[in-house]
């Protein structure tokens, strides 16, 4: 069993099937939206 975790806010994004217990880090949608808004505000 694997777990997908947001590297910014540490929220659990999803679980997936794997032979080993694994934790993978990515960005969740809320963190992606915040980063886009911050970039738009800087312009």
Structural class: alpha+beta
Strand order of the largest sheet: 2-1-3
Uncertain spans:
39-43
Radius of gyration: 13 Å
Span from first to last CA? 42 Å
Order of helices and strands: EEEH
Describe the oligomeric state of these chains in a short phrase: single chain
Q: Give the number of domains.
A: 1
Helix content: 25-40%
Protein name: GapA-binding peptide SR1P
Organism: Metabacillus bambusae
Pfam family, one: SR1P
Give the tags.
43 residues; 3-stranded mixed sheet; 1 helix; 3 strands; elongated; SR1P; GapA-binding peptide SR1P
Structure commentary:
It holds the Pfam family SR1P. It comes from Metabacillus bambusae. InterPro entries: SR1P. The protein is α+β, with helices and mostly antiparallel strands and 43 residues long. It has one domain. The protein has one helix and three strands. The termini are far apart. The C terminus is likely disordered.
Please specify the SSE layout and strand pairing:
Blueprint: E1 2-6, E2 12-16, E3 22-26, H1 29-42
Quick structural summary:
By secondary structure, the chain is an alpha+beta fold. Helix content is 33%, strand content 35%.
């Amino acid at each position: 069993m694997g777990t997908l975790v947001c590297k910014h806010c540490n929220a659990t994004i999803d679980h997936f099937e794997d032979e080993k217990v694994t934790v993978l880090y990515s960005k969740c949608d809320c963190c992606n939206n915040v980063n886009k808004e911050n970039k738009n505000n800087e312009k």
